Amino acid sequence: MKLTVFGATGGIGRQLVRQALDAGHEVTAVVRDPARLTVTGPRLDVVRSDLSDPESLRAAVSGRDAVLSGLGARSRADAGVAARLTRSVLRAMEAAGTRRLLVVSAAPLGPVPPGQGVADKAMLAVVNSLLKDVYADLREMEAELAASATDWTAVRPPRLTDKPVTGRYRRVVGGTPPRGRTLARADVAHAMLAMIDDAATVKQGVGVAY
After folding, report:
1. pLDDT above 90 (res 74)
2. Beta bridge partners of 48
3. How far is the C-alpha of 196 from the C-alpha of 27, rounded, in Å?
4. Mean pLDDT, residues 147-171 taken together
5. 141 and 69 in contact (C-beta within 8 Å)?
6. 36-64 pLDDT tens trace
7. Domains of the chain, residue spans
8. In what side-by-side order are the strands of the sheet with 44-48?
9. 72: left (phi over 0), alpha (psi -120 to 50) or beta
10. Would strands 44-48 and 159-161 be described as parallel, antiparallel, or unpaired?
11. Predicted local distance difference test score (pLDDT) of residue 73
12. Cα dihedral 191, 171, 167, 181 sign
């Protein structure tokens, strides 16, 4: 497949690029600073862009089988970046007629799983309070997805780690895995790549966790 990856220098983005190349896909990585992209390969094309102009992104998404985005705030100070940059990606995709889009969101935006314990509820309340601006940004991003013409999927992992890929995790379309506390960035990327051709995940939030 021909894939475009946004946020390719981030933790999940790098994994998306590396795993996609390892699987034999052709990858276009859109980055603000190419020097930060350590992944290389003969099927990799690197495009430099600050993502502010949808028209400048049109060529990067035109003719692609899917677009995958690891864009998002890395701290509370970055809140707002996910919705703003995803809006540019959506406009570029709509102009190019490219439909499939998978993005990274977060578990707290999904429904509360059945049987969630008191400790998990308390922890969720604390996290929501600390990261309320980040989650508000992601909610706005998901609203932009829902209003778009794309075949989108919002992948919602819990707390991220840097452990190696396992390919073994739980997935709930339209829901949240119970007691799902962590997921490696490598497995988030694995899950996103596996969902590209999965019609059941189109226009859905998908909870993923160990």
Report:
1. no
2. 31
3. 14
4. 97
5. no
6. 999 999 999 999 998 888 999 999 999 99
7. 2-209
8. 44-48, 26-31, 2-6, 66-69, 100-104, 151-156, 204-209, 170-173
9. left
10. unpaired
11. 63
12. positive
- Residue 184 token pair: 């490696």
For residue 85, pLDDT beyond 80: yes
Name the β-bridge partners of 68.
5, 102
**Parallel, antiparallel, or unpaired for β 66-69 and 44-48?**
unpaired
Residue type, 104: V
**Record: fold of 2-209:** Rossmann fold (3.40.50)
Distance of alpha carbon 28 from alpha carbon 44, whole angstroms? 6
Residue type, 209: A
Q: Please, what is the angle between helix 81-96 and helix 54-61, to 10°?
A: 60
pLDDT above 60 for 87: yes
pTM of the model: 0.91
